[in-house]
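dumping this here so i dont lose it
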């Protein structure tokens, strides 16, 4: 009697799609939050430090910026993710209704979609027939092939907002940290290079997941941080020179 044996499942454990989503599933929020927290806070407090020369004002501005912006970014991410999820859910509900009201048309459409994606005609017909017997399978296939929606990958608004909130705080504290312990003149000399290095490290660290050039990615982040710093410096010098602030 013939018996079949399962082929051992070989895979590379280093590939990120074998490690679960984890932080990778929220890489957009983490990178955006850290980068924006560092860049905006660095530019703002450097400008305030040069323009005012007041240690208390710099700390107040820094804490205020981080507090307000982290909440704003977190809430904004939550609202946008929730809105996107609700739109996707509405589209799926409409597709579910069409499957219920027009089963033959949807069955025919799914068969055509299988063929479009490269499946043989006879196998496409068999798969479409199988899907028609299971409404949830039918919906999942139509969502994926017609609507480009993976129903299992809908947005997670609370998680997205939380990642953005804490990432922004973490990023914003990097340029502000030196001002808690040092006078302004010394703090600037520590804050600026420390933040620029942190931006470079963030960009370079992303290549663990993207497999791009760590140097190119790091410099990309570094340049954007430098641009924000330059704006902050110009504003600070202008305010002090022309307005005596």
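and the seq i came up w/
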């Amino acid at each position: 009697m013939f018996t079949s044996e399962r082929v051992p499942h070989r895979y590379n454990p280093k590939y990120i799609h074998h490690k679960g989503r984890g932080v990778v599933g929220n890489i957009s929020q983490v990178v955006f939050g850290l980068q924006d927290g560092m860049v905006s806070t660095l530019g703002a407090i450097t400008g305030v430090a040069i323009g005012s020369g007041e240690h208390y004002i710099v700390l107040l501005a820094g804490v205020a910026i981080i507090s307000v912006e982290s909440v704003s970014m977190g809430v904004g991410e939550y609202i946008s993710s929730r809105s996107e999820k609700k739109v996707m859910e509405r589209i799926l509900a409409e597709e579910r209704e069409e499957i219920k009201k027009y089963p033959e048309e949807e069955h025919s459409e799914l068969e055509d979609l299988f063929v479009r994606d490269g499946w043989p005609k006879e196998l496409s017909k068999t798969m479409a027939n199988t899907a028609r017997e299971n409404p949830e399978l039918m919906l999942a296939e139509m969502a994926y092939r017609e609507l480009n929606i993976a129903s299992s990958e809908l947005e997670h608004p609370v998680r997205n907002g939380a990642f953005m909130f804490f990432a922004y705080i973490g990023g914003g504290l990097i340029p502000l940290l030196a001002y808690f312990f040092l006078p302004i003149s010394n703090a600037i000399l520590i804050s600026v290079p420390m933040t620029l290095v942190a931006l470079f490290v963030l960009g370079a660290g992303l290549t663990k997941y993207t497999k791009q050039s760590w140097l190119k990615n790091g410099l990309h982040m570094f340049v954007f941080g430098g641009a924000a710093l330059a704006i902050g410096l110009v504003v600070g010098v202008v305010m002090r020179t022309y307005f005596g602030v």
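DSSP finds eight helices and no strands in the chain.
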